[in-house]
Amino acid sequence: MNQPSPSITPKQALDLAQNAVSEKQLSESAFENLKRWVTEPQYASYQPALLQLIEDKAFEDLDTYFWEVIPFGTGGRRGLMSELGSATINERTIAESAHGLAAYYKKFSGQETGKAAIAHDSRINSSKFARIAASVLAAHGLTVYFFKTSRSTPELSFAVRQLGCDVGAMITASHNPPRTMGSKPTGPPVGRFCRHTTRELLTKSIRRQKFLSSILTPRLNRERSN
Q: What value does the mean pLDDT take over residues 60-87?
């Protein structure tokens, strides 16, 4: 992300945003989510861009980016792709989704280690987001099996079963428009994800490390076709 050089402080930015709420240019929910991203240290890399957007009074865009925290639904988390925002799919929200999956698996299973499979479709940013998700799962102590090239959701589901994985994640927006993206978890704990758990899964730091992984080989593809 290119780093702009805003001329306002975080306090001044929040004053402007609060005024935008008063003038019905920004929703209350967007303001609350925006406030977290402007003030909390885990969002520091996004703050110059946010301050610049506020200084430019781009409140319509900011409302789109922050009107909600994308919930976990039956199909995972899906939304518009953007460089930032609690209501969009971006590097941060993809990392949060992977963290949520790992944290919930550990809570559900009582285990500190396990195995995960990650796949992605051919959309723009899919491979990048998949690698972010894989690195977060690896940081949680899971061994990660990663598809190097684009795959379908059924292939990911097959890999989870065939490799004895505890969880999996498919980076895809399925049939949704090209500007959208999503993270669809799979595995035994996944059915228990629901909207009210979303906020407890967000953390102040997302750990990443290089994959404790294997690249899936043509052998798995052959086994699936048999």
A: 91
